Amino acid sequence: MTDVTRFVYDAATAVDPLGDLEKEAEKAAKHNRAKVGSGRPSSLLYTYGPGSIMDLPQFTIMSTGLDDWDRIWRRRDSLPPQIHAPRLRDVVRMLLRSPDVQLRPHPWQPKRISLSTEGNDLGVPARVFPQWLRCTGCDMLGMLSQFDYRNTHPFRTDLACFEHAKCTGRSGNRARKPARRTAVPARYLLACVDGHLDEFPYDQWVHHGKPCAQAQFPALKMVDRTAGKGASAVIHCASCNMRRPMNEAQGEAGKSKLPDCRGRHPHLDAFEPKGCRNKTRLILVGASNLWFPATQSIIVMPESQQERASDLADRIRTSLGDKLAKYRENLDILRDLLEGKVDITLLSDQELEQAVTAASAPPATEEEQEEQIRTWDPVDLLVPEWRYLLKDPLGTRHEDEASGLTLSKRARDPALRPEITRVLAVERLRKVNALVGFTRIDDMDRVGDLPRRLAPLTRAARPTWTVATEDRGEGIFLQLDEERVAAWENRVLATDLWQAHRKAHQRNFNRRFSDTAASVDPDTRLRFPRYWLVHTFAHVLIRELAMTCGYSAASLSERLYAWPEAEGREPAAGLLICTTASDSDGTLGGLVQLSEPARLQRVVSNALDKATRCSSDPICAMRTPQDPEDFLHGAACHCCVMASETSCERANRFLDRRFLVDLPGSDLGFFSPLG
User: Fold this and answer.
1) Does the N-terminal peptide bond of residue 80 adopt cis geometry, omega within 30 degrees of 0?
2) Do β-strands 132-135 and 60-63 pair in parallel, antiparallel, or remain unpaired?
3) Name one Pfam family in it (predicted).
4) What's the whole-number average pLDDT of the chain?
């Protein structure tokens, strides 16, 4: 075993599908390509990223850490492609505490025709996980090595499966001719709040932590006749005839019966060198809280002169490496070294010298890095977007080739609500999303005060890259009247309703956040009233736009610009409703068409009118959290306001129709009745 940087790791067990294929070729053995499935880039970032479990038709797999992806890139002569988004890249570098992180797409290459071979050497490496399987014919419970792998059809990876070669059925009649029966994953796992995940120790469980009295390698069975009803299975040792139900491991009472966490990261094939201090929890393979991605994203805007200079300095630094310090005084040699790597042909010697000086600046110290992370606010990613969207486009339609952003100003329909001051049609946009880690048990926004709970993507302490996706699409931007919003917000802050929401948030924070919540003021995590307003408005617009734009409501997403004035940034009150796709051509324009004055007026009018009623009223309209309730919404439910998880950036929290329109018993609506 070798200690690689941070973890205990055995390099001999590395996941290397192409290497395995080469070994099979040396033996002159026919073998299907190592690919076992496929997924869209968005799903491989938000649902099935490194450390998550993906369901295939016959078994489940886990995407490995990025270290194993490097083996695929290294087999190619060309450098891996990068996604250009300097503003996002700098934030990712800060959060990962690594100064050289690149943003790379998933390893994939399109095929010229369906049967061509280019790109066959690219793909996301994965391992079978969990590796305990159960025979569907006889209930035999065993490790992966006890089953045969079948994957013979080169174009039907969905037929790949594990089989019990000599299954005699549940009766165990040895006179019966053995048959091949499919094996499926045993669905129980152990997880801890620090992101570790481990196989469930079935052999220890059924024997209460002791070895089997009859066999060194006991024959286990998982008897499960009520699938879908939680931990309903019973583990049976056929060697000593001991039995133990899995429901004993459930709930608070079951925690004390489970073993301590071993600190395992199966996606890295590694263990924490000092183990883990946490108790484990029983979790199912398909549980929704098994994997929560921690991502950051931006809408790419035209770069300012300062941003371009910073990006140039960074590209010079990363391209030259140690040679930068050696030749920084000789500009002619630097030009030769940078030829073909960084385009500096149009730079004068003075401009190149300034860029080299910036590239040679010493990196931030560890103390400075930790201070940056501690004080960083995710809103900082939104501020440059808001500032650019406040500017009117040059002419009726302005397209920026570098960023791909195309904006058109729309006239306001005379009947459009006066609270909406500006409308922009975002005819083309580019959105870049990057993965910085993941959590288990709790979502990232609930453990942000505890960095150790962010599980790593690599074994290296300072990763050199992370996976990112690039989406293209369209949208509609609406700006609200800041004076009206500020006056409305001051009125709401003094109400009993806002105090009820504030106290509910305190209860929610103290009950559900990590164990350092006591040192964090819950009010610093509570969104301001204007956020509730803009958020609720975005949701009702998404519902109404989906009726006529040609996209489903789940395909539309929100980007909210809602914060009061603070040091270094002006107040914001606006929203961008957009739809994006990972395909190179983006979307079809159905959403932008609804930004035309008359159409948008109808959409807004209908959305606000529908917000005044709900099929769950009056219960919904009067819903206010009271002690001991800790829900983070008011007059909002799935019948009227709440949206799908692909649309909402806050998991349907911070919503209340009473802040949007007047409801019975409330006159706090920002969009007050016209008249």
Assistant:
1) no
2) unpaired
3) MZB
4) 89
